[in-house]
Amino acid sequence: MKRTAWRIVSLALCIAMTALLAVAQNPPAPKAAAKKPAAKMANAMADQQPPQWSSISIVRVKPDMVAEWQDLQKNVVNPALKKAGMKERSVFETAVFGESFEYVVITPITGFAQYDEPMSPLRKTIGEDAYRDYQAKARRCVVSVHTFGGLHSRTW
Fold first, then answer.
1. Given phi > 0 = left and psi -120 to 50 = alpha, else beta, which region is 128?
2. Which partner from 38, 67, 107, 131 sits 20 to 30 angstroms from 83, CA to CA?
3. How far from chain centre, in Å, is Cα 5?
4. Residue 74 has pLDDT above 70, yes or no
5. What percent of the chain has pLDDT over 90?
C-alpha cells in the first residue's frame, strides 16, 4: 500500500510541476487600465482556459538500460514526434520521491480522434522497419508502461 501511495504522490507532484512550468513559460499579458474589483473578477473567470486532457505514461526502465532508453528517446522518439507535429512532450525522472528508474511522460491530447488513427505518429514518421527496430530496443530497456488520461486545469 505504501508503494502505491508513493506512486500517487510522485505522479501528483509531476503533474503539478508540469502545470507550473507551463504557466511559467507563458508570458504575462500586458496590463490593462485599472478596473473595478468586480469587473476584474468577472474578467478573470471569463479568461480561464478550459481544462486540458493529457496522456500520462509511467515508464519503468531496467536499471542497466537507462542510458540506452534515454538515448532512444533523445535520438529517435523526440525528433520523430517533433517532425510529426507534436508541439509538447514532457519527460520527468523521479529523483527524491517515487520509484527509482521510473519516468513520467506527459503529452497533451489534442482530441480523442487522434486515437482513431490506425498508426501512431511515431510509426508514421519513422516507417515500418525503423519502428520495428525501435520496438525491439524499447522492449530490451523497459520493464513496464502504464498509460492513462488525466484532465487538469492550467489556472494555478
1. alpha
2. 67
3. 21
4. yes
5. 53
The predicted-structure confidence for 103-144, as pLDDT tens digits, reads as follows 999 999 988 988 898 889 999 999 999 999 999 999 999 999
Contact 152, 51 (CB under 8 A): yes
Query: If you write DSSP's letter for every residue of 64-80 in order, what string do you get?
Result: GGHHHHHHHIIIIIHHH
Residue 138: per-residue pLDDT: 96
Q: Which of 147, 143, 2 is nearest to 60 (CA)?
A: 143
Sign of CA dihedral 138, 142, 139, 141: positive
Q: In the numeric block, which cell numbers belong to residue 66? A: 537507462
Q: Rounded to whole angstroms, what are the CA distances from 68 to 76, 115, 117, 133?
A: 11, 28, 29, 13
Considering Cα of 119, then 124, then 129, then 135, what sign does the dihedral take?
negative
The whole model's pTM is what?
0.66
Torsion angles phi and psi, residue 68, rounded to 5: -70, -40
pLDDT at 86 over 80: yes
Q: Are 153 and 51 in contact (CB under 8 A)?
A: yes
